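Researcher: Please predict.
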Amino acid sequence: MNIRPRTNSALDDRRMVARGFTLVELLVVIAIIGVLIALLLPAVQQAREAARRMSCTNNLKQLGLALHNYHDTFGSFPPSGIDGGKSHGMWIRTAPFFEAGNLYDQYNFSATWRDNLSLCSQSDMATLHCPSSSQTITTLASEAPCPTTHYFGNAGPIGLNATTNENYARDTSRENVSMFGEVGDEGLFKLRSELGLRDSTDGSSNTILLGELSWNEYPFYRAWNRGLHWTSSGLYLATTKNHRYPINIGVKNPSFTMVANNGGYGSQHPGGANFTMADGAVTFLPETIEISTYLALASRGGGEVVSMP
């Protein structure tokens, strides 16, 4: 005689039924996930921007070191250009010092900068690009698809020296203000110049060497090897720029009208842009910096007493 164990069928049935989420519980979970995503995304974006800004800082550090090595070799910083015809810029002259020596060896300095566009288009020139900017090629159709540069040599300040109460010096003999803008004369780069650290009488730690101009809507991105354009219409500076306007003026006011020589330093980094000083240090200058202080940092020998912001 087989005796079957007694079971509680009702209890067993309850155990076999899997309990699921109610609609209210599901909505609560979705809401919590949404809040977490909303909190995390800005933090992730800030972390990514911090990494991009650090990469930009490293680029400017490398380029500052390259210019110092050039200075050690030739006794001065490279000129913004030698002549208005061939017009090879400062970055192709400095290329061997920032790991672009192979390109430099193939570059034809007997030809013009334009004749070398095909060669210069073969490299992405990452060292010359801020990763926060999406515009990495020239905005001039006849030069595309050649890479541009986001880092420009300091041609000098345009405006009033608050210490002497006189305007900063300019090269008025080559200016066409309405077409290209003023030509600064108190920076560390100019036409046919052999300026060096010895000329930075304000102190190398108080003089801008390079500035970042990397905002996406800037209209004058040109081929990275181009130095200048000099005709009867005046002098156009391609890889050096004046310091005239407040930092990020073009970012904050896209309708602001500017001409090429006056650049409009700024970046996609929130609140300012990166700059390399003549001593090689890289600093982030805020867009709120006093214009008199900013211009003073752009002059190599204006006699101003300034402190870094």
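Model: The first strand starts at residue 151 and ends at 157.
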